[in-house]
Amino acid sequence: METIKNKTFDEERALYAARDLSVQDCTFDGPADGESAFKESRDVTVEHCFFNLRYPFWHDTGLKIESSEMTELCRAALWYSENVEINNTRLHGIKALRECANIKMRSCDVISPEFGWSVRGIEMEDCTVLGEYFMMRSDHLNFRDVRMKGKYSFQYITDSVFENCVFDTKDAFWHGKNITVRNSVVKGEYLAWYSENITFENCKIIGTQPLCYCKNLKLIDCEMADTDLSFERSDVEATLTAAIVSIKNPLSGHIYVPEVGELILDIENAHGKVIVGTGACKREICDCCA
Predict the structure, then answer these.
(1) What are phi and psi of 281, to 5 degrees?
(2) pLDDT tens across 183-198, in order?
(3) Are 154 and 134 in contact (CB under 8 A)?
């Protein structure tokens, strides 16, 4: 494997179609303002490098990025690439990762609107994320210990698992399918509307009007804080561990909860059963649910 160290590159396609290359302590910046430094490359390792130019990693395979920085001017950094590992790296440009496959990210800091669109298979562990429209239309996400803040995240995703995460995000998981969220905190308005086959286990859910228009929704031992008008027109099986502000028109299923501030049933087909209490004292909240 060839090694390049302590160099500065600013020309167009500086290392185009590189093969079996190790690049260490290099800078991609300068007056020539060249794009696409590593386009069409294979089996490249990048360590302790600085990227301040656009589109560095397009159509790459077998890429490893370690302890590097991509600035806000390094837009659309990784597109159409596969078999990529990114560790301890800052990705701060818009649209930093899209249309990629088989991605592993660990200990990264992401500040990137529209990150992760149409990605097929991504593992993310111990990362922080700030950005809007995060991971839209992606599938097979596996996240652990990820802290994310931003609006409109995880829309239209499928076949994904999230564990020990903290998400502060409005309109998350809209139209998602086949999703499991465990041991996590999810804060934000209008959670998971129009989702299908989504399960929350041992989670804390915070925010107005969550989990409406859902099919095959499951909550296992979850806390719902400041959640009013919950479960509207949803098919739901839920066991809640704390009082809930209000429930509105669940279509089917059962909701077990210690206390309900308000139950709203004002449509004919709201047949979901709400069972209030703990232990032997559980009771259905009203005759219409019997």
Answers:
(1) -90, 5
(2) 999 999 999 999 999 9
(3) yes
Nearest-angstrom CA–CA distance, 265 and 262: 10
Residue 51: how many CB atoms within 10 A of its CB?
28
d(CA 187, CA 225): 9
Which amino acid type is present at position 180? T
Taking 80 as the threshold, does the pLDDT of residue 287 lie above it?
no
pLDDT, the chain, mean? 95
CA dist., res. 146 & res. 166, Å (int): 6
In terms of C-beta density within 10 A (0-12 exposed, 13-18 middle, 19 or more buried), how is residue 112 classed?
buried
Interval 109-129 mean pLDDT: 98
3-class state of residue 281 by DSSP:
helix
Alpha-carbon distance of 250 to 230, in angstroms, equals 8
Distance of CA 200 to the CA centre of its chain: 14
Q: Which stretch of DSSP H or E encloses residue 144? A: strand 139-149
N-terminal to C-terminal alpha carbon distance within the chain? 72
Both tokens assigned to 174: 């809209």
CA distance 39 to 16: 5
- Locate 119 and state its tokens: 């990605």
**Dihedral sign from CA coordinates of 80, 38, 56, 165:** positive
pTM beyond cutoff 0.85: yes
Q: Are 241 and 225 in contact (CB under 8 A)?
A: no
Q: Which residue in 109, 164, 117 sits closest to 139, CA to CA?
A: 117
Q: Which of 157, 261, 49, 191 is nearest to 143 (CA)?
A: 157
Q: Which pLDDT tens digit goes with each residue over 263-273?
A: 999 999 999 99
